[in-house]
Amino acid sequence: MASYAKALPRKRFFVDMFTRDIALSDCVLDLIDNSIDALIRTQKIDITAAVLSPHKDKSPPKNSVTVTLNADRFQVVDNCGGVSLQKAKEEIFNFGHSPDGQSSLTDRGIGAYGIGLKRAIFKIGSKFEFASVQKGIGFIVADDLTDWLDRGDEPDQWRFPLRSRLDPTLDAKLGGTRVSIDNLNEHSLIELQTNLEREVITAISRTYCLFLDRYVTLSVNNTNVKAEPIPLGYSSEIGLSSESYEDDGVQVQLVAGPARGGDRGEWKMERAGWYVLCNGRAVVTADKSELTGWGGDILPQFHSSKGRGFVGIASFTSKDPLKLPWTTTKRGLNRESGVYTRARVRMQTIAKPVYKFLESLYPSSSEDSDSENRVRSGLSQASLGHTLSAGTSAFTPRKPRTPDTEVNVQFRLSRTRLDAIRAHLRQSRLSAGEVGLRMFEYFEENEGLS
Amino acid sequence: MPTIYKSHDKVRYDLRPCKQVERLMLVDAFRRLEAIGMPIRDYHYLGMGAYHFYDFMLLHRLLGLTKMTSVEVRTEVERRVKFNKPLGCIDIKMGPIGDEIPSLSPDEQHIVWLDYDGPVEEAYLEDWSECSARLSPGSMVLITLDLEFPIRSGRANFLNKQLGKFSASIEVSSTSVSPKGYPILLGKLLNLLAKRSAAGRKGIKFIPLFNFVYRDSHRMITAGGMIGSDHQARAVAASTLSNTTYYRPSLEIPPYEIRVPVLTRKERNYLDAAMPASSSWTPDDFDLDPADLRAYREIYRFNPQFAELIF
User: How far is A189 from chain B (nearest CA, A)?
Assistant: First the structure.
């Protein structure tokens, strides 16, 4: 008779361990993801179209997500369509998706891994309620995690109580969901007192910038969150560098150009870099690191003084959210993704001409320049429809002016070394600049250059 | 670019026999590729013609290319360059060749020759990588670099500085920067970068074809290949190009050394009359170093003949 080693799941592991890799604010975003996902499903939103075309209709959307964060309770309520009773019983509370569940992921949705809801509950507090109504059928799933843990790890104890109920806070006509978490963990209380609300609002304005005000309104503690649009600037004189292609079931849209100025017209470093979107959800914002190709084989490293006018958008969309190159926290990119590795090379080729153009605006080492001001003032907010629908466009700005014939040469040198050279020349009063010039001339003469 | 490396003011371009052999071998190679159906004459050539435009003239006359762009980085010689342009179908662009690469049309095939005068540097390798990432399938890219070090000692340090971020991609040691090891080191690095950049493209890879080392004034290396599909790679391997002595299916094996022996006109005519000759044949009427004879047998078809014109 064969013998076996047990390989049972332990509830405590899920409560303690898999909450470690994610920040609290990201857990709140995971709950919002589920609302947005429901929205995509019910309204059949195709986000590729949204990325391409400007937002014309100015009337406020009827769908909303209301977030409440206080010391008693964290809550996310939406009217984005709700969840079916069947799905709640069979799918939502499992850890991960069944094969059937996987195939029923929302088309072009942002729900992917089947852990966001549970992980959020475990991270935030110990008592939860999940109430939903769809097509007139309402139910509520509620439990206290301490009780759940006490009930033990036997296979038939991996479940939460569910009963029929039409929750009065929900919109029965549109359908909606309420997730509430009480008995907050100590850690949630601490973060609430430090910066959680502000962090969540900022994260929402960036992460859902394509959805906000166009498909859904979002509020946090009664503050309406406004989208922080990706500041890509456009002028017909300069154009944009772009490319669109399909790779393994994923639509990839890449575009780069000069940044739209901030409130006072200036280019801001913290908004410069690459913005990466997966099914419309911003995963990485204003990235200037080698994650998005800076300092790679084709592109130089990002230099703050010259690159701060650079904005790039890399949008990945797919019917199957699992094909997208995001990590399980959806705040990072999966480096092993073939789609992303291939895209990263192309992002470099798209970025290079824009970056070089920006570099050329600063012929000397000075940080500001007339050329920069002139270029910036000619830019308006890019509507991506111009560019991405065109397929590929080459970036061919007119060169700002002929380059300087002289350059500044600057470097730091220790005083001792400089003094040693002055002593050697028997000219202790030479300025640093004059010493430098002598050294230059010496090299030229001795190497036969002059 | 430091002026020390600008060769056309110091070396008479028309009197570089090894470089001329290299150019003619490349023309020979392109002819063999045309024979397997690649429409080389329709390709767009991007190169650095300087004042003499040698490669442009050869490609136009011997292969029939009519779409050509010559790039000159020294903006102060613009008038002289434009004055010397020998053909109407050459477009002159001023600035670094790297600036031209993004505007190469994906709807055309190109031959891009990054014919740098100086030793390897970070920006050159970025240009090389970008070509591998961008050029349409069937296109070719070549790079020429100076193999000499301007300082006798501290070669490894010098190289690491020149490579910048790319120094992390290969092993620089005192053996690998020796005269024998250095071309292999560069070959490995160029191959690696071309592969990495082409990895971003589905079904397309870098196919090595050429790796020449020669010395007229400075010892130089020219490495290159095609950007293409597996199908194209197989077609090349099955073509007559693969039978030539100068073909290199990998940049990591020893390169082809172009050696042009110094001979008198009388000696050349004598040798030509016996060509093609077997490896055991030797001239009866004079003695020749066996290495020179071997070299002559390989390059005689590509050997330039210099003469003085009085007019």
Answer: 45
